[in-house]
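Design request, tokens follow.
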């Protein structure tokens, strides 16, 4: 059976700078895959891998991270979204630092984003190119619970994909991707703890009890997924790229140097693993 190579990109807000560093090195070295799937920041930043725009993620985040329209309490109070939806998903990609939509469409690589249906609690795996509302799917995937309003796309009410499936390796395997690179944003040995805000979450999301339940149990689901990834890693069927240490960066970061620090960890990690990545993706 011919190998079908996939790339799975975990979210993690500004830990996604690590992901950007890795994928930039992959692009610079002409490393491609058959399909990619991103969750939250993994989708919002990872789409630049399909559009083949190395350097774009660190460039626009560094330039605009101090702009009040980008993210922060002001945006949350005014719009209900911690990250400014209009500025981040319209102004930047369409005017200030252009996203190459034409290259994204022409690239035959499949690209999926993961969202959570807040009414059913199910993970929705959306293949890009099948909707007239692609922008909303990307925004939904990165819409953090309690820090974002639900996003409506194609008749569904959606929030961050990490609520229902933080690292969708099993899904990609189920649709035929039998060799996968799993790009994590937490170091080896990381164990997710129960969210201390669970009582607040349950109260705030009482209208969406299935989402509240998912968030209450997310630490267990995440840790079970990591155990599965480690098992698959030992078999040699997947290649895991993870930061060597905890990245320790805030979800909203206004320091360009901090963003570059995490980005450079991603670059260095990918450069050190470059021959492994090349060998793994060779057909």
């Amino acid at each position: 059976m011919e190998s079908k190579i996939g790339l799975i990109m975990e979210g993690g807000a500004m830990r996604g700078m690590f992901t950007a560093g890795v994928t930039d090195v992959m692009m610079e070295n002409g490393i491609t895959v058959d399909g990619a799937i991103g969750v939250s920041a993994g989708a919002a930043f990872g789409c630049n891998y399909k559009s083949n725009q190395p350097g774009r993620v660190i460039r626009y985040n560094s330039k605009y991270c101090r702009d009040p329209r980008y993210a922060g309490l002001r945006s949350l109070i005014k719009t209900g979204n911690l990250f400014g939806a209009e500025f981040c998903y319209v102004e930047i990609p369409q005017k200030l630092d252009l996203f190459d939509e034409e290259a994204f469409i022409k690239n035959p690589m499949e690209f999926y984003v993961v969202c959570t249906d807040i009414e059913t609690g199910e993970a929705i795996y959306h293949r890009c190119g099948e909707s007239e509302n692609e922008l909303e799917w990307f925004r939904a995937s990165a819409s953090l619970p309690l820090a974002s309003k639900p996003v409506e796309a194609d008749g569904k009410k959606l929030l961050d994909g990490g609520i229902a499936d933080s690292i969708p390796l099993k899904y990609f395997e189920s649709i035929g991707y039998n060799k996968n690179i799993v790009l994590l944003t937490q170091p080896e040995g990381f164990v997710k703890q129960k969210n201390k805000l669970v009582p607040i979450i349950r109260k705030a999301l009482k209208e969406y009890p299935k989402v509240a339940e998912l968030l209450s149990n997310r630490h267990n689901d995440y840790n079970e997924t990591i155990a599965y990834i480690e098992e698959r890693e030992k078999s040699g069927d997947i290649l895991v790229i993870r930061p060597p240490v905890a990245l320790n960066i805030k979800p909203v970061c206004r320091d360009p140097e901090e963003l570059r620090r995490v980005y450079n960890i991603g670059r260095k990690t990918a450069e050190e693993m470059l021959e492994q990545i090349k060998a793994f993706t060779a057909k």
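Comment from the thread starter after seeing the answer: thanks! The two ends are 12 Å apart (CA to CA).
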